Amino acid sequence: MAANFFNRHFCHVSGIRGLTNYCLSCCANTLLQTFSATWELVDLLKRWDSAHVTPNGRNVPLEMKKVLVAMQSEQPVSHQDFLHCLDRNGVQLHTQHDADEIFFFILNLIQTQMDDKILVEKIQSLYKVSVQTHVQCLECASVQTKASYLLSLPLHIKEDDTSLKDCLTSFFEDHELRGLNCCFCLQCEAKTPSKQGVRLLTLPPILCVQLKRYRNNGGYTQKLGYRVTFPETFDFLSIADQAFAKDMAQRDCRYSLYAVVVHSGSAGCGHYTTFVRHRESRSWYHADDSQTRQVTWNEVQSSYGGGHRHTAYMLMYRRE
Ligand SMILES: [Zn+2]
């Protein structure tokens, strides 16, 4: 009785609720932990008047809203309906999935299955990184630019013992396109070698960073266990000032880390867990399916990779 009371009390205080592993659901569990820690998203879902949505078990944002609201309360959390709903939308149960793919799949389903388009736009804006891509012809020097957006920054890891700053620097470096990769230049009216790059126009309230740890190696997927360090807080201006478009006026670029999706094991066979930071106490917790415990920042750093078995895969930063 006392233990039961303690657990309920603890859950309420910590706000970190474990989720049972149901039919190999560690990937979905880890994303639910991440979404639950993104309280801006939970608040927007709560504002959605979903009473008229047909409860046919196919609407992912509806089922996700139910789980996320339960995770923030003292009610028991059941996420089986959510997992079956994902299954009906093509994310099969009993199968290992890629967290980064399912993350985008869920964001996409929010866009297509939620009928309140104003809220949909607000949810997109939480993650939206506006960028300008430019292609400069190396023969006539003319420049073509295009504005677009990303919902995360996909960072390639080129070598061992690197840092988030190195990966960001490399993401915003210009690269040359030659040979088969030549682009059509309107001035030259021909395919010419060019220099291509990406610059930031605006940074979002929630910055999702994907560390691209999977590499296709002659038809089979290899996981890169390289060590990549990342800070608990950082100022984007100080770590990637070359990343900004000339007319970008944004100066509030300080971010703090609040969730880390961790992958253990190999590309073909592994397990996902999450480190999440509590909203009020700002303490770190580790959620391994139904098991949750408080940890130190040192333990979060054990997911840098290198000698460690488990490696950070997605980093969620919040603008301060
Ligand atoms: Zn040209």
Biggest pleated sheet: 8 strands, mixed
**Can you count the helices?**
10
> Helix fraction?
25-40%
Radius of gyration based on Cα positions:
21 Å
Strand content: 25-35%
What order do the SSEs take from the amino end to the carboxyl end, as H and E?
HHHHHHHEEEEHEEEEEEEEEHEEEEHE
Which residue ranges are poorly predicted, with pLDDT under 50 across at least 5 consecutive positions?
1-13
By DSSP, the count of extended strands is: 18
Secondary-structure-based class equals alpha+beta
Mean pLDDT: 90
CATH topology of the domain at 1-126: Cathepsin B, Chain A
CATH superfamily of the domain at 1-126: Cysteine proteinases
Based on the coordinates given, report the CATH architecture of the domain at 1-126: Alpha-Beta Complex
Ligands in the structure? zinc ion
Shape by Cα distribution: globular
- Output the CATH class name of the domain at 1-126: Alpha Beta
Ends distance: 41 Å
